[in-house]
Amino acid sequence: MEPPGTETITQRVHSVLSAIQAATEKAGRRPDSVRLVAATKTVTVDRIREGIAAGLSILGENRVQEALSKVKELAHEPVRWHFIGQLQRRKVRSVVGLFDMIHSVDSLGLAQEIDRRAGEAGLLQDILLEVNIGGESTKAGFHSDDLASAVSTMGALTHIRIKGLMTIPPPTDEAESARTYFRRLRELAGAIAERNIPGVAMGELSMGMSNDYDVAIQEGATLVRVGSAIFGARHG
Ligand SMILES: *Cc1c(COP(=O)(O)O)cnc(C)c1O
Fold first, then answer.
1. Does the beta carbon of 209 lie inside 6 Å of ligand 1?
2. Which residue in 34, 125, 163, 226 could disulfide with 118, CB within 3.0 to 4.6 Å?
3. What is the 3 state secondary structure string of 3-22?
4. What pLDDT, in 10s, does the model give residues 205-227?
């Protein structure tokens, strides 16, 4: 239950969508160049339905079991699904094909498994490569230095399409402190794009969350993943 007087999900969806639009315009970018992925982990389907009615069109889930039951329950809603959480190899089979995009491909082995399962299912799976842009020892993702060679190998996999990069920068108190990491991700994508590796595109940058999506858009984000600014603080 929301405390009385606070904004509804509908109001928050509208304000996040207009803030995205304003940031995009201010950055001199095309209005449709940034898409909102609503991060819906732990959010009930009723609350998600309210968000969809208010204009959410892409939902991002983190956990496979939770995602599968929500996909089923919301099957008749006009939404697309993205997978944004850490993905274990043994669960790849159940996510391939269900999600338009897997944002969180953090190793060559995972990319190979997605390719193998997509091949078996006869599909082409779009993915993003997650980069540990702050070089944190506890965080998943490719290290910047290893990315180029891994991408060359992955480019040869015929059942995945690499569409760009994703990152979760080190936690900071101020949105402005994330700017340097967002910029680094954009530069890294640019450097890889210049190599013209067959099968590899770098058009998508998934970066920016509730506290810093504005800065991320200024630095080139094409997908922002926003949870608490829409659904409120998560409890567990
Ligand atoms: C939860 C989550 C988000 C959204 O975070 P908020 O701070 O609630 O906006 C974005 N990306 C990933 C990978 C997440 O797990």
1. yes
2. 125
3. CCCCCCHHHHHHHHHHHHHH
4. 999 999 999 999 999 999 999 99
Q: What is the pLDDT of residues 45-95, one digit of tens each?
A: 999 999 999 999 999 999 999 999 999 999 999 999 999 999 999 999 999
- Residue to substitute in 62, 206, 209, 231 for testing ligand 1 pocket (most ligand atoms within 8 angstroms of CB): 209
The predicted-structure confidence for 99-115, as pLDDT tens digits, reads as follows 999 999 999 999 999 99
Residue carrying the six token digits 């998560």: 234
Q: Considering the chain, what is the average pLDDT of its residues?
A: 95
- Residue 13's CB is within 10 A of a number of other CB atoms, namely 24
Whole-number Å distance between alpha carbons of 230 and 113: 33
- Please say whether the beta carbons of 24 and 38 come within 8 A: no
- Specify the residue with its C-alpha closest to ligand 1, atom 2: 39
210 C-beta closer than 6 A to ligand 1: yes
230 lines ligand 1 (CB under 6 A): no
Which is the closest atom of ligand 1 to the Cα of 228? Answer: 8
Walk me through the domains of the chain, giving residue ranges and CATH numbers: 9-227 (3.20.20.10)
Q: How high is the pLDDT of residue 67?
A: 98
